[in-house]
Design goal:
The complex is a heterodimer of chains A (119) and B (110).
Chain A (H helix, E strand, L loop, with lengths): L34 H39 L1 H14 L17 H4 L10
Chain B lengths: L11 H6 L1 H22 L7 H21 L1 H13 L8 H15 L5
The chains are: A mainly alpha (119), B mainly alpha (110).
Keywords (chain A): Electron transport, Membrane, Mitochondrion, Mitochondrion inner membrane, Respiratory chain, Transmembrane, Transmembrane helix, Transport
Family (chain A): Belongs to the complex I NDUFA13 subunit family.
Function (chain A): Complex I functions in the transfer of electrons from NADH to the respiratory chain. Accessory subunit of the mitochondrial membrane respiratory chain NADH dehydrogenase (Complex I), that is believed not to be involved in catalysis.
Chain lengths: 119, 110
């Protein structure tokens, strides 16, 4: 009973003099990047990528050219070998019309008419 | 069916590795063969003598290379096999083979 003093007058809580500071209830966002900057950065990245891609492509094409050149150096040998093998095997003379590369393997050879080999 | 002529068959890797060696000796015959092909068409019978010359020369060179520079030839062809037949990756092996060719095989043909 000793803690309560019923004779004290009630005091109401009031705001401090001058009022409370304003509440910051609005959304806070950093200042936006300008659209020109976004366009600029995008096109710069695309431009650099395009330059890298086309440089690489030119290099790859040159490499391909070199590979083809090197491969073409052995083509006479392959062609000559193919010609000799073809003439030595049994074949029908089709050169009155146009040349066709020999495309017959051993397995298909058994299906061919036998009179071709007699020429 | 008549018998096929028995050439020693060389792989594409071996031939590409030895391309410069082959052209050093057989270049003229190969050019003559291609010239004949261009003039007379693709009929194999028309250019038979040239194709025999090309095959004879190239198989001679390849035989010598196999016997005298076999290890380099093998290294070059296995490098090509490993690199998906891209010869640009195998210049080192090819140079070694060329050196061996000039020192051991070429003097025979000069």
């Amino acid at each position: 009973m000793s803690g309560l003093n019923y004779k004290q007058r009630w005091v109401q809580d009031l705001p401090p003099p001058g009022g409370y500071p304003k509440l910051e209830y609005g959304r806070k966002i950093p200042p936006p990047i300008s659209g020109y900057w976004v366009f600029g950065i995008t096109f710069a990245i695309m431009g650099v990528g395009t330059v890298i891609f086309f440089n690489d492509k030119i290099e790859r094409m040159n490499q391909e050219k070199e590979e083809k050149k090197r491969l073409s150096m052995i083509l006479p040998i392959l062609q000559a070998e193919n010609d000799i093998n073809f003439l030595a095997s049994s074949h029908q003379n089709v050169y009155t019309t146009r040349w066709m590369p020999p495309q017959i393997q051993k397995r298909q050879l058994t299906l061919l008419p036998k009179e071709w080999g007699k020429n | 069916m008549s018998e096929q002529p028995k050439f020693q068959r060389y792989t594409r890797g071996e031939l590409i590795t030895a391309r410069d060696s082959l052209w050093t000796v057989c270049g003229e015959s190969m050019l003559a063969f291609e010239k004949c092909k261009m003039e007379k068409g693709d009929d194999p019978e028309a250019c038979l003598q040239f194709s025999i010359a090309v095959m004879g020369c190239s198989s001679k060179i390849m035989r010598d290379l196999t016997s005298k520079c076999g290890e380099y030839l093998k290294a070059g062809s296995s490098c090509l096999n490993e690199n998906n037949m891209r010869s640009l990756e195998c210049d080192k092996e090819k140079l070694k083979l060329d050196e061996c060719f000039t020192s051991k095989v070429l003097p025979k043909y000069q």
